[in-house]
Structure formats: structure tokens, C-alpha cells
Amino acid sequence: MTNSTAHFEPDSRSTPPAHQFAITRQSPLIADLIALTYPANASAKDSLRAQELAYELGALSNTILDVTQQGCVELWRVSAGLAAVLRLLEADEEADMDTVGIHCLLAPLKAQLDEVVSRVQAMI
After folding, report:
1. What is the domain extent for residue 84?
2. Which of 3, 25, 40, 81 is most buried, most CB within 10 Å of its CB?
3. What pLDDT score was predicted for residue 3?
4. Residue 95 falls within a domain, yes or no?
């Protein structure tokens, strides 16, 4: 590195759309940060430790991504179950006030669940 002063120029990776979460972008950004913070003449020990940390952070990022994706799958199953219950309530031709009340309670909860899961999936 000939210049001792680092110059930061943002690229397209540093400005994601507002609706995206950085889980999938975390590892490359951390690697870029490590590259900027370690001078070219860093010791082999420091460079190795930086690589180990980057690997650990990447593994952690993958774990977070996997757990989040699995959570979304499970929540979509809950949503499908709620949809089935709502269809059964709607199919009841002799619906009494209790049935209507249960439907009125579950329908907004299902809609809220679906919206939240959609937002989480959009982040990953």
C-alpha cells in the first residue's frame, strides 16, 4: 500500500435498497472492512487472525440466515393452518356468534402473520 491514508469510495454493495436486510451482504462487507483496516505490511499472524475472524463471521452469518429461513418456513406452515381453520369457519352455514367471533379474531392475526413473514423473507 503506497498511500497511508485510506480513501473510502462507496460502491453498490454499500447502498442496498431500503427493504433489504444485510444478512446476505454481511460477510463481503466485513471482508472489505478487514482489508481496509490491515495495512499491507501486517504480520502473517495478524493476517491469519483476520482471516479466521472473517471465516467465523461468515459461518455465523450463514447460521443466522439458515435459522431465519427455517423460521419463515415454519411460520408459513402456521399461516396455512390458520387459513384452513378460517376456511372451515367460513364453510359453516349455521355459523353462530361464536364462530363469527373466532373468524373475526383469527383473520387479522393471519394477515398480520403473513405480512411479518413476508417482510422477514424480503430481508434475506
Report:
1. 19-123
2. 25
3. 41
4. yes
